[in-house]
Amino acid sequence: MTVTLADVAARARVSPATVSRVLNGNYPVAAATRERVMRAVDELDYVPNGPASSLAAATSDLVGILVNDIADPFFGIMAGAAQGAIGAGGAGDALTEAGRAAAGTAHERPTGTSTDKATAKATDKTSDKTSEKVSEKAGGEKLAVVCNTGGSPARELTYLTLLQRQRAAAVILTGGSLEDPEHLAAVAAKLARLAEAGTRVVLCGRPPLGEPPAGEPAVAATLAFDNRTGARRLTEHLLALGHRRIGYVAGPENRTTTRHRLEGHRAALAAAGVAEGPTVHGRYDRSSGYEATVELLGREPDLTAVVSANDTVALGVCAALRDRGLSIPGDVSVAGFDDLPFAVDAVPALTTVRLPLHDAGARAGRLALGTEAPPQGGVATIAAELVVRGSTGAPRGA
Amino acid sequence: MTVTLADVAARARVSPATVSRVLNGNYPVAAATRERVMRAVDELDYVPNGPASSLAAATSDLVGILVNDIADPFFGIMAGAAQGAIGAGGAGDALTEAGRAAAGTAHERPTGTSTDKATAKATDKTSDKTSEKVSEKAGGEKLAVVCNTGGSPARELTYLTLLQRQRAAAVILTGGSLEDPEHLAAVAAKLARLAEAGTRVVLCGRPPLGEPPAGEPAVAATLAFDNRTGARRLTEHLLALGHRRIGYVAGPENRTTTRHRLEGHRAALAAAGVAEGPTVHGRYDRSSGYEATVELLGREPDLTAVVSANDTVALGVCAALRDRGLSIPGDVSVAGFDDLPFAVDAVPALTTVRLPLHDAGARAGRLALGTEAPPQGGVATIAAELVVRGSTGAPRGA
DNA sequence: ACACGGATGGAAAGCGCTTTCTATCGGGCA
DNA sequence: TGCCCGATAGAAAGCGCTTTCCATCCGTGT
Fold first, then answer.
1. What is the pTM of this model?
2. Per-residue model confidence as pLDDT tens digits over B217-271
3. Is CATH 2.20.28.160 correct for B5-58+102-130?
4. Looking at chain B, which terminus has fewer C-beta neighbours within 10 angstroms, N or C?
5. CB-based contact (8 Å) between A47 and chain B?
6. For residue A165, what is the nearest residue in chain B, using CA coordinates?
7. Do A51 and B48 touch (CB under 8 A)?
8. A21 touches strand C (CB under 7 A)
9. How far apart are CA B67 and CA B189, in angstroms?
């Protein structure tokens, strides 16, 4: 029922081997023959069987991107950027172009007859392009898929196994991870076997794995966000404004991101000799920020500033404050983290710490492709930048 | 180098066939034998070769979710919900639980010795569960991957082809589509072949495909948002408040969502005998809303209300208005669409049209799994609900 | 006590593609 | 003119797993 390589071979009156070679373009095939094969592919509307190729070639062109929460733009932006770098044929940033290019792209190949042939042609084109003896390592066009772990360690492992099963070309893990030693070890082990099997591993916005066993090569290329310094700068900013009673709405416990940001915050306080204010842990969503703020104010009614786990949480913090009749930043200053697109639209606009999510994601994509050389020592630290806006100001009477 | 089924068989002193049967649990295997095999699997840390199984079984457990923009929560929420319904082992909504459950889940299997064994165990557990003669159609645990098309029709087709190659179990297309007839035909053709090959096709938040050829079964189960009615209600609300000069910041041209919302808007105006105000098309992002508003005010300085393509755009509209010194809703009312989580945090909170993204996504996931029966006639229309908040009010002097 | 059938396990034939290893065909060169 | 080589194409051996027959084995019914 489905068209196979053999069918194409028969129609083109060549051997299956030749068809394979034409399609993969890594072996000289006479122009005439190639032409004949392509015609047959077109006419039969042949689509290669992925599993079969992957099995025979022992590789696939899948790249997995793991995210903690796909509904959170923090991950969406990184994933989109990575995906753009991986799948857009080098165009780099298809995501950004997307809106504008929304129309038109479909007509680029007017030669096609039946609509579906356009697809086949596209495939051919790709092969053509790569057929000019592209080295194996160069990493041609790959297909990125994003896997939503929902923050569940079990699911993270499941996806990693799936990707391992699929013999993925690369895996990108984004965002902070759970700090449970058992889980960490399990992930490290899994990544080690993936790397061993030839899958490129990239960590984006996540701290590096432990050191590799001995003099062995690093398992993963790592792009780590400098959450600690970012958080520290943010708290220093608040301290400079005169705040001394600062509440902290932290992210979920046992997460690296949560810990690092908290550490930066505490470091700033310690350096200034200011006592730490109340801290409440919660989720990375707005209602968590709301609830935490209520709790915080209960514990310490005269707070003059609240630092949030991230921008989304900050929105909840603002809402809670407003509902209590407190003005921002008049009565209480609020700070976010990440500088997601909506941060500037909050009223007042959020003071926050910008993380170059887009750049980091794109770079992760290139690392996954092998287009970009891994950083020295395998780990690059990505700086976080303080962005001061209207939501922070001097405390009353300062 | 890698462990294969045969290795496991050898170690367990059974035939490969038996190992396969234990792993897939669709054939009676004596408890003792099974036990032996499982031990071997554990000890060797065996991970099945996905491509090989897919090839032999002619199916895979991949479910593809196509989204237009992964950085947009509109898609993220649907994708997350779908993914939760598909991959969470029936738990239904892993995404929501995620934050809370962030810790702990890793310890659930204290029997494991080496860290990596935990994974193997998890796999076994799954097999166990399904080994009790689960019918083929029931659709066990599948793996959802989301594919970001970035709104590019070419990429949409590419991903569909990829999924076809992988012999995906199901495909979910989310969000509106381009209205280009050629592209539409290409997609329809592709989906038809997918369906024909046994892949379940679900459209979520996208209008139905054209009618299937003759008396043939519908290719796709469709969950269509009633954007038209939603938009109509929204404009009616504005009209009821007394607005007569309403600007419209529309989404990209040639998109179904854009057209439907615009049609609803116009229908309301027509029904009320009110002349249509200026309309500007743009992207689905905040800066587009900002720019469009500047343009709108240039054309028609005395607008009293602006309707936006969606909430994100509305944020940009608000920013532009604020920058011009116009108050919301005092001088100009603003309305969004979708009711994304941040809509309530805008100041003033956005009046918008709520789309049950989460429910729709989850339902799409169940349809993809075959857990839920497709709607009558193949198409279910999902109602959109007007949500009135502070960003809309009576125009000055009304 | 003997034949029969249910319960298990093995053998082996692929699934569709990739990739050596060969075979063939012309030319260029000595 | 004859030989060796580069350029092409084909043959065939898998890749690792599923699954359709079959072959056993043992408990039962009569």
1. 0.85
2. 678 999 999 999 999 999 999 999 999 999 999 999 999 999 999 999 999 999 9
3. no
4. N
5. yes
6. B50
7. no
8. yes
9. 19
